[in-house]
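From the shared-data thread, chain only:
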Amino acid sequence: MVSVFFSKIAQFWFLFIPVIAMSLVILASNELVNHPINDWLTWGAFSYPLSFLVTDITNRLFNAQAARRVVYIGFSLGVVLSLIIDTRIAIASGSAFLIAQLLDIYVFNKLRSLAWWKAPLASSVIGSAIDTALFFTIAFIYSDLPWITWAMGDFSAKLFMAASLLPIFRILVNYYPTSLKIAKV
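Structure, as tokens:
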């Protein structure tokens, strides 16, 4: 009984940083999407891809179950906090995020045995496509805002970010302490 209790505490602490990171990325992205750079791009396109980085690192270091746990908890915190910013954005973000992140985990897991860069790149590109299509449609379909061009521009930026974050993924996975990689989460 005591070992189960300490096991749950250990699981919480191993995933604490990814959960907080995920929540902050969602919150920041939901605020930044309200700040267009131009008619083709919002600032959220540069922060949101960090959520795929968090998910993919958690998936690689631990497993798909741990990554799903980070998504569910981080999603819940991020969306609840985002309700303060804009309810419409929070609902669109929550819907798109959950589907895109779970798809990212599924694709990553299927490709995990390939070259180190293929799983994070493919899963991020596919997840970003789904997220972008769902988010911009749900959030802005009935508005007069240039949401279609924002979606196209944001997706292009997300592709750029997915490729740019690969070296960071590689470094963080390679230099993560081995003693922590074997922890059960």
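Strands lie at 36-38, 41-42.
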